[in-house]
């Protein structure tokens, strides 16, 4: 008798649990377009950067990122800085970088996935968590895009997205003007458009377009690709102790040895 | 390593280096001798398991003078080391290790780690960005 009552109680509890959990599960399933999970940059970047496991179906790597189509005099300044930096590196005097101050990459650099990244699809929002710098983007779906002048400047900017069929189209404005992807300056008019789509079950493509009428003569476009890394758990990366510092006189990076 | 896989490894390193240079958010390893590698044997004093880089400190006898010097060895990030097979508690003060490193160009006792060999003979690399070992 007691056993029967216990079984009935357990059964009732299971039914209640199923009723409560099932809609949430169904909702999370219906939200997913297959982007959720961990991803690493493709082509693979060598030992320690990722899984080292090539995709089952080889996909052509994207073309290299072209030089930014900067207006003058920014283009000449950019080229001169690139040449100066290359010469400093050759001499063993690396130029200063934002990483020295543990400052994260910001947009669009964070999407090159130096270390793996995790994408989470939830109702109304897609969240991208980069392992590098624990850097997070929140892409809000189904809401109007902000005008650049209304967006508070942030490292990751402010992103809104919408689905065009199987393509996730993300618009980002409000990227801080101190964020210089590939040493490229920009104004607060910057607008980044990403078109992300699954090429197949394990490859994600991201076509990036940067527009900035003040600094660029035309849109700056390239493609990044990512390979799915099933089961990979993103690690913590708090940039707490960077021993590199800027030499106050010579303006290049030095290592604090003591 | 056969010729094909060596070529692939070189291409992988070239890609890693090429893609690392323009990023500027992370720093370069240009402060270290680009081609010189030396071998040091010594005793671990500390392992700082931190980001953006892990730092290993050892007391090692100078290969030329025989004098004991305290060395600071730069490693990759915790995540790169974890993916390369390391563990945060793999090295403890007092452990005897042998390392292959590229020293600082300034002559100060600091170096970029290329490979560490533990007392039991197991070897661990410092990841692709630190470059491959060229000496034995």
Short summary of the structure?
With 258 residues, chain A is an alpha+beta fold. Chain A is built from two helices and eleven strands, in the order αβαββββββββββ.
Could you characterize the architecture of this molecule?
The complex is a heterodimer of chains A (258) and B (136). Chain A is α+β, with helices and mostly antiparallel strands and 258 residues long. Chain A contains 2 helices and 11 strands; from the N terminus they run H-E-H-E-E-E-E-E-E-E-E-E-E. In chain A, strand 10 (244-246) and strand 11 form a beta hairpin. Chain B is of the alpha+beta class and 136 residues long. Chain B is 18% helix and 32% strand. Chain B is built from 2 helices and 6 strands; from the N terminus they run H-E-E-E-H-E-E-E. Chain B is globular and about 35 Å long. At the A-B interface, helix 2 and strand 11 of A face helix 1 and helix 2 of B.
Span between N and C termini of chain A? 75 Å
Fraction in beta strands of chain A: 25-35%
User: What is the structural class of chain B?
Assistant: alpha+beta
Mean pLDDT of chain A: 89
Q: What's the layout of helices and strands?
A:
The complex is a heterodimer of chains A (258) and B (136).
Chain A: H1 2-31, E1 37-42, H2 74-90, E2 117-122, E3 125-130, E4 136-141, E5 158-164, E6 167-173, E7 191-200, E8 203-211, E9 220-228, E10 244-246, E11 253-255
Chain B: H1 3-20, E1 38-48, E2 55-61, E3 68-74, H2 78-83, E4 96-103, E5 110-117, E6 123-125
Parallel strand pairs in B: 3-5
Antiparallel strand pairs in B: 1-2, 1-4, 2-3, 4-5, 5-6
